[in-house]
Specification:
about 70% helix, mainly alpha, 2 strands
């Protein structure tokens, strides 16, 4: 019989899966062109048609927004430190707040693209689940090493 506690406490795998789904949804949302719209760029024109000097800060911001979760995935997989867990939880809360602001901004646009609202609602829900799992991981006790030179005790 499987240990139910071991299955439910695999926080690192859950967090990695949730961040991955979040990033995939973000790619979909960005490819639809809504992110540039909030920075005064046309949704119907490509980046090549824009003045790259004007949009470079936006692109750097989007890079940072996308890169931090990638680093969070790597950190989550490679460390179990309580300090990292606390920082990670704080980061998930910041991302949820940003997603809520983004969703509200999407709803205030003169022309609403409902498929983009749908992906933002999904991203926000995934973010809330990520907050919950990250909080649980932060509050969980770190795993103790029980192996001494090759043999469990």
């Amino acid at each position: 019989m499987r240990d139910i506690n071991a299955m439910s406490a695999n926080y690192q795998a859950k967090i990695t899966a949730l961040w991955t789904v979040f990033l995939l949804g973000t790619i979909f949302h960005t490819d639809l062109g809504l992110m540039p719209l909030f920075h005064g760029l046309s949704v119907t024109e490509s980046v090549k048609a824009q003045n790259i000097d004007e949009i470079a800060p936006v692109l750097w911001g989007m890079l940072v927004f996308f890169t931090l979760p990638m680093l969070a995935i790597v950190g989550t997989v490679f460390t179990d430190l309580r300090r990292f867990r606390a920082i990670h939880f704080g980061m998930t809360v910041v991302y949820s707040v940003l997603n809520l602001i983004h969703l509200v901004a999407d709803l205030l646009l003169p022309k609403i693209f409902w498929y983009q609202i749908a992906i933002m609602v999904l991203l926000f829900a995934i973010g809330l689940l990520l907050n919950l799992v990250s909080f649980q991981w932060w509050r969980d006790r770190p795993h103790k090493q029980v192996e001494v030179y090759g043999s469990p005790q």
